[in-house]
Amino acid sequence: MDGASLNAESHLSNKLKWLTLFRILFVIILLVSIVVVQVGQSPSPPASPLLMVYGITAAIFVISIAYAFILGRMKQTAVFACIQLAVDTLIASFMVFMTGGFPSPLTFLYLLVIVYSSMILFRKGSLIVAALCSIEYAVIACGQYYGWLHPFGFSDTMSTPGAHVLYNVVMIAAACFSVAFLSSMLAEQEKRARNELVSLEDHLKRVEKLAAVGEMASGLAHEIKNPLASLTGSIQLMYEELPCHPDHEKLMQIVLREADRLSALVTNFLLFARPPAGKPKEVHLCAAMDEILDLFENDAAGLRQITIERELDSGIWVRMDPMHLHQVVWNLALNAAEAVDGPGVVTVRLFSVKPDKACIEIQDAGAGIAPEILPSIFDPFFTTKPRGTGLGLSIVHSILESYDSRLTVQSGPEEGTTVRFLLPRIAPPT
After folding, report:
1. Contact criterion met (CB below 8 Å) for 268 and 399
2. Counting beta carbons within 10 angstroms of the beta carbon of residue 427, is it exposed (0 to 12), middle (13 to 18) or buried (19 or more)?
3. Cβ neighbours of residue 71 under 8 Å, at least 6 residues apart?
4. Can you say how many angstroms the Cα of residue 66 is from the centroid of all Cα atoms in its chain?
5. What DSSP state is assigned to residue 428?
6. Please, are residues 281 and 321 in contact by the beta-carbon 8 Å criterion?
7. What is the DSSP string of 212-281?
8. Residues 419/332, Cβ–Cβ less than 8 Å
9. How many CA atoms lie within 13 A of 309 on its CB side?
10. Which residue, 221, 301, 229, is CA-closest to 265?
């Protein structure tokens, strides 16, 4: 099970714990209120038609304790939640039936079950619970009307007109579905806000980590680059001016090649640590990305067996350094192409998500990123590629930070990977 699934299971488990506590408190309050109301009435509570309600509330209390005991040992938390909610609808119907059925004052219990079901199972689950409550109430009302059901301690005859019964059933059903829709809408908004908050927290932690590494990297890169340049220059001079044995010449070529590779690595590290401010200007995104992708497809590093599919909306302008845009799109497209084993497709999309935002999305059909390494992909020098440096995404992240943007990654095993980022739109230049 991946980290996201574990977090979802843990969050659902916490909700069920609170539901169990709420159920116990509600039963206690309900039982006390019934006793208080009945104390001043005649006959006494033991002889009251509500005698069965006392037994039901006691049973609910016992069931709640059993739920709390089972919850810690249940692996399928979502299934357990569905079972609890289904049982709660039956309990609510039984209490409605035992307190008069069709005219029972406890029909509000249906709405209560629907409200907390929307917090646990969201819209789809709450609508199913609303349907169950509506059907169960309709069965009780119709059963009483036709004389099939007789609530304990109440009159066997029902003088309510059939039209009134039908109207009441329809209104209860409408109330159930209305509450389900509204409460689930609020629950989903809360879920989206919570997910966005978690994403923002992860982003801030990533920024703090990269900032700390960047400060150290900046000084370290300069300290390495200067002596490396001297070393490369000295070897180059010796190679050009001194006669060498073929074996020595081969060794010098190896030194120069590896020095160049190390210099490129230090340059990328410095770019990650302190990306240049650049010179932002108005950029027509569709045209600029077409140019970048044309170069990418024709370049050897672009992996010619990859087909680039473009879905680019025209008319979108941003203010950005063209070189920064080139580096970001190129690195992301290269990562996507390298993720595909053999011939495949990389889809690049450009579209508006808000009146003032443009979204660039790059999707591959590769093997995806394993959940356990997904949190580490932005770490400097972290790579799963045999010849990778692990700085590509770190550089992209640093560049996007300078434009108040952030890269989001959605991936899973055998599902491919989708990366996207937003840029502020501007009005087309006149």
Report:
1. no
2. exposed
3. 13, 16, 17, 20, 77, 80
4. 32
5. P
6. yes
7. HHHHHHHHHHHHHHHHHHHHHHHHHHHHHHS---HHHHHHHHHHHHHHHHHHHHHHHHHHHHS------E
8. yes
9. 8
10. 221
Distance from C-alpha of 36 to C-alpha of 361, rounded to nearest angstrom: 63
Distance CA 394, CA 380 (A): 6
Amino acid letter, residue 96: V
DSSP-assigned letters across all residues of 196-227: HHHHHHHHHHHHHHHHHHHHHHHHHHHHHHHH
- Residue 327, token pair as written in the block: 């580096």
Listed in order, strand segments (DSSP E) in 18-94 are none
Domain spanning 281-426, CATH class = alpha beta
Q: Which of 376, 351, 349, 377 shows the shortest CA–CA distance to 364?
A: 349
Query: CA-CA distance, 84 to 94, in Å (whole number)?
Result: 15
User: Would you write out the chain's pLDDT as a tens digit for each of its 430 residues?
Assistant: 444 454 566 667 777 777 777 777 877 777 777 667 666 555 554 545 566 667 777 777 788 777 777 776 766 777 778 888 888 898 888 888 877 787 888 888 899 889 888 888 888 888 999 999 999 999 988 888 887 877 765 555 566 777 888 888 899 999 999 999 998 888 888 888 887 777 777 767 766 666 666 666 656 666 676 677 777 777 777 767 767 667 767 777 777 777 777 776 676 666 665 666 668 889 999 999 999 998 888 775 545 578 889 999 988 999 998 888 998 999 898 888 888 877 788 899 999 987 789 999 999 888 788 777 777 777 666 666 655 566 677 778 778 877 888 888 888 777 788 999 999 998 888 7
For residue 388, what are the CA distances in angstroms to 17, 331, 365, 377, 385? 47, 12, 20, 12, 5
Which stretch of DSSP H or E encloses residue 400? helix 392-401
Name the burial class of residue 367, with classes exposed (0-12), middle (13-18) and buried (19+) by CB atoms within 10 angstroms of its CB: middle
Characterize 62-95 residue by residue with b for buried, 16 or more Cβ atoms within 10 angstroms of its Cβ, and e for exposed: ebbeebeeebeebeebeebbbebbeebbebbbbb
Tell me, what amino acid is at 144?
Q
Helix (H) or strand (E) holding 421: strand 416-426
Nearest CA to 151 among 94, 90, 195, 217?
A: 94
Peptide bond into 428 cis (omega under 30): no
Alpha carbon distance 99, 151 (integer Å): 7
Contact 97, 104 (CB under 8 A): yes
Q: Which two tokens stand for residue 332?
A: 């992301």
